[in-house]
Amino acid sequence: MARYSRSAGKDVKRALHKRKKGTLKSGKGGKGGKVKSRKQAIAIGLSEARKKGKKVPKKKSSSKRKSSGSRKRKSSSKRKGARKSKK
Q: DSSP readout, 27-73?
């Protein structure tokens, strides 16, 4: 089963074309600056599709991130200031 509707894909395609042309703007009512990032253009297209009620997965919220304590820290093998002097 498809995650995105065909019409949602068309909205993203339209946003990417606007970005390429240089007319895609960010922010409420398009008052923001010009969009230069491809990823940002895709996000704008998807949010427009969501507002129209098209089939698009829900946005991932930042509060559901995994805790960073599970990652291991890399210990550096080089210590600062501990150099051998040449004789």
A: SGGG-S-B---HHHHHHHHHHHHHHTT-S-PPPPPGGGPPPGGGSPP
Residues in the chain: 87
Q: Which residues contact 8 (CB under 8 A, 6 or more apart)?
A: 46, 49, 54, 55, 56
User: Rounded distance, CA 15 to CA 79, Å?
Assistant: 50
- Specify whether the CB–CB gap between 57 and 28 falls below 8 A: no
For residue 14, is pLDDT > 80?
yes
Helical pair 6-21 and 38-51, crossing angle rounded to 10 deg: 140
Global model pTM greater than 0.70: no
CA 60 to CA 46: how far, in whole Å?
Answer: 13
pLDDT digits 0-9 by tens, 38-61: 999 999 999 999 999 999 999 888
